[in-house]
Write a structure and sequence with these properties.
Elements (H helix, E strand, L loop, with lengths): L6 E5 L3 H5 L5 E2 L6 E2 L2 H12 L7 H7 L8 E6 L9 E2 L2 H11 L5 E2 L6 E2 L2 H11 L7 H19 L1
Parallel strand pairs: 1-4
Antiparallel strand pairs: 2-3, 4-5, 6-7
Length: 155
């Protein structure tokens, strides 16, 4: 039991569970596309009241009341170097694991930095890599030096 009255459940997923990315799912009623099967199933339950399976979790979602004790899941990183790292969702654990422990597949051509996600390397190239953009401070310094040289040439 936590301070806010919710029940705390610790989950220790395996590396396979963390890296297993579910493919996109399509709602069988309206055709809307979801990133994973859980989101699609929840949509079908809440929007279309579709209950094909006799799953207790699905029944609980439909019959949820305010007096029911909320459950907070804590996801723990499986790496021994991160034994005390705890995340509030599998999504955040997956982001951490891929960025910290997975193979770094993408390399910056300018500086050689290796990153695990394509979106991270794109951000790095656009905003962080000194090889792709001129630092503003150096440009201002060069302009001042050029002005001084021109002024000194007049005397």
């Amino acid at each position: 039991m936590t301070e806010d009255g919710s029940r705390l459940v610790s989950h220790y997923p395996t590396v396979d569970e963390i890296l297993n990315v579910e493919s996109q799912q399509r709602c069988s009623v309206c055709g809307r596309v979801f990133q994973n099967s859980s989101a699609c199933r929840f949509h079908e339950l809440k929007i279309h009241s579709k209950t094909d399976a006799v799953d207790t979790n699905e029944a609980r979602i439909l019959k949820r009341t305010s007096d029911e004790q909320p459950i907070r899941m804590h996801f723990h990183c499986p790496e021994s170097s991160c034994e005390h790292k705890v995340f509030d969702g599998l999504r955040y654990l997956r982001q951490h694991y891929i960025r910290s422990h997975a193979e770094k597949k993408f390399t910056c051509e300018r500086c050689g930095l290796k990153l695990a996600l394509e979106k991270d390397i794109n951000y790095h190239k656009k905003h962080r890599c000194s090889g792709l953009r001129k630092p503003k401070g150096l440009c201002l310094l060069r302009e001042k030096q050029n002005r001084k040289l021109k002024c000194n040439d007049l005397y």
